[in-house]
Design brief:
2 strands, 3% strand, 76% helix, mainly alpha, globular
């Protein structure tokens, strides 16, 4: 479905494409008359929000407002992927949201989204690093909750799944992420 550059979604998509501002008014008018698919806009927003999450997570310290932005960006990325993506995108979105909440030491929503991630992983038979990350999400969320027994259980499952990740690059990335905290004293 194509939509004219009007309405909230297409207007927001248009704004993303206009930043930085175009130098000439004719160019801005030409862009305003262009059409964009709804799927294109959802994909663009999903990627932008995902990148915002990683940018905020990489900061040494964040303000309370940035922590709130982190939560909103993770949810927004998931929302947009859920509109156009496949089950793997939704599974990874739940992983990202869980990760954000675990990093912020908010165990209840971290556990909720980790459980959703693992359930989708099992339902769709995802393997390789998606399985490893689903276990990692459960481990980290349980660590944030202070449940050492469950955290260690899922951490061990994550390490076992890591051994089965086919691509060396993916395996090394996962192992590196696994070494990154916070683990709340559980390792």
């Amino acid at each position: 479905m194509k939509i004219k550059a009007t309405g909230y979604l297409s207007f927001a998509c248009l704004l993303l494409l206009l930043i930085p501002p175009l130098a000439q008014a004719e160019e801005a008018e030409a862009v305003a008359e262009s059409t964009y698919t709804e799927a294109h806009c959802h994909q663009r927003f999903a990627i932008e929000c995902n990148n915002a999450v990683w940018s905020l997570l990489s900061k040494e310290s964040r303000t309370t407002g940035e922590d709130e932005d982190l939560i909103h960006a993770a949810h927004a990325s998931h929302y947009h992927w859920a509109r156009i993506g496949k089950p793997i995108n939704i599974q990874r979105g739940h992983w990202l949201i869980s990760h954000v909440y675990a990093v912020l030491n908010m165990p209840d929503p971290a556990l909720y989204h980790a459980s959703k991630c693992l359930a989708l992983t099992e339902e769709h038979g995802f393997v390789d690093f998606d399985l490893a990350y689903a276990y990692e999400a459960m481990a980290r969320a349980n660590a944030a909750a202070g449940d050492e027994k469950e955290a260690v259980k899922y951490l061990n499952l994550a390490r076992q799944a890591a051994e089965k990740i086919e691509l060396d690059e993916d395996r090394q990335l996962f192992i590196s992420d696994l070494k990154t905290g916070p683990w709340y004293g559980i390792e």
